[in-house]
Design a protein that fits this description.
The complex is a heterodimer of chains A (112) and B (246).
Chain A lengths: L6 H18 L13 H6 L3 H15 E2 L2 E2 L6 H15 L3 H18 L3
Antiparallel strand pairs in A: 1-2
Helix pairs in contact in A: 4-5
Chain B lengths: L4 H4 L2 H30 L4 H11 L2 H12 L4 H11 L1 H14 L4 H10 L2 H10 L7 H31 L12 H14 L3 H16 L7 H20 L4 H5 L2
Helix pairs in contact in B: 2-4, 2-9, 2-10, 3-9, 4-5, 8-9, 11-12
The chains are: A mainly alpha (112), B mainly alpha (246).
Chain lengths: 112, 246
């Protein structure tokens, strides 16, 4: 635990910070003017929801790179409870708390 | 950026900050478990703190840890980080018209600090870029308010995770709180039938294409969802402005 600090690793970490800037700013780093066609901007309206969904779906229904083949997984019920709460009452915090309230007992108590 | 008083005192700053606040606990839980994961994998405290403060991208941090520990060549680690972050390239295309009126250093700072949740909340609040300077200032303040809250929650809890790594077992699954926050934000964005379809297509594609390396399944999912939903929107002549208001 707590290995020694390696200067080379630190350099790679700085490089990774550069990668964060490069990717998050990719299309607005240069000053050169060019406009995004209206239809493209329109199409991108679907990107945020799709991106978030794509990030979370595997976290809920997959483990070790495979689709889970059991209903005895606490994540399924935690996420379902969260979604139900959201459409009943709304609110991000409430969704998270209700989801965890279902998830933790099943996960820690029942070992799902 | 959130040190600039003009931005901090704009009412939109507080609005943006409040919009993220509900999710801050979930973001924090995710940061906490990322901090724990970095130390448990054998990184030193200095390395983990440097990574937290500089890289500021949870998924690319988690992807880089095993590579760094295994002594993988630097260019491979950086290339892997780039691929894992490819969804941000799509975000930058979307954010471009909102930011191009600013000087470059300011665009870069905003871009660097805008992660998934801030981007999604911001583009939902402002479907079209402002044209008047007053609208542009308002949008900038909202964006900064959102990402400042995200940044504080993420940094504070990541550093706490690094400090308490020995006392927080990863098996507890506290990181699931971060997933649940994103579930709520995703639900809030599925406000029209087509956007709900986009969410469902993205879920299925991301799972089906999971075998792709470097999380490219996420990029594939965005591509598939945007393509199908935009085609359908055109096909059925959905009124774009009416969609934006929902």
């Amino acid at each position: 635990m707590n290995g020694s600090t390696d200067p080379w690793t630190l350099l790679v970490i700085v490089g990774l910070a550069g990668v964060t800037v490069l990717t998050r700013c990719f299309f607005f780093i240069l000053d050169r003017p060019w406009g995004l066609p209206d239809w493209a901007h329109r199409a991108l309206h679907y990107a945020p929801a799709a991106a978030l969904a794509a990030v979370i779906a595997p976290e809920i229904v997959m483990s070790n790179g495979h689709l889970i083949h059991t209903w005895l997984d606490a994540r399924l019920y935690g996420a379902a409870a969260g979604v139900l709460w959201y459409f009943w009452r709304g609110g991000v915090l409430g969704t998270m708390l209700v989801g965890m309230a279902v998830y933790l007992p099943l996960h820690l108590g029942a070992g799902w | 950026m959130f040190l600039s008083a003009t931005i901090r005192h704009h009412p939109a700053f507080r609005e943006g900050s409040r919009a993220i606040a509900g999710a801050a606990l979930g973001i924090g839980a995710w940061g906490l478990m990322t901090g724990v994961a970095m130390l448990k994998s054998g990184m030193s405290v200095v390395e983990a703190v440097a990574m937290t403060l500089l890289v500021y991208a949870g998924s690319s941090q988690l992807a880089a840890i095993p590579l760094l520990i295994a002594g993988t060549p630097a260019w491979v680690v950086l290339a892997a980080g780039f691929c894992v972050n490819l969804r941000f390239v799509v975000f930058s295309l979307h954010l471009r018209p909102y930011l191009m009126h600013m000087p470059r250093w300011r665009r870069l700072l905003h871009g660097y600090l805008t992660a998934d949740m801030s981007y999604a909340t911001f583009t939902r609040r402002y479907p079209t870029p402002g044209l008047l300077p007053s609208q542009q200032d308002e949008q900038e303040a909202y964006l900064v308010g959102g990402y400042a809250t995200t940044w504080c929650a993420w940094m504070g809890m990541s550093l706490l995770g690094i400090a308490l790594a020995n006392f927080i077992p990863t098996q507890w699954g506290l990181g699931f709180a971060g997933v649940l926050s994103l579930v709520a934000v995703t639900c809030s964005m599925a406000s029209t039938p087509l956007r709900l379809l986009a969410v469902l297509i993205a879920c299925v594609t991301a799972v089906a294409a999971f075998a792709l390396p470097f999380k490219l399944n996420i990029v594939a999912a965005i591509g598939a969802a945007v393509l199908v939903c935009f085609t359908l929107e055109r096909q059925f002549g959905v009124d774009a402005d009416a969609e934006d208001d929902r």
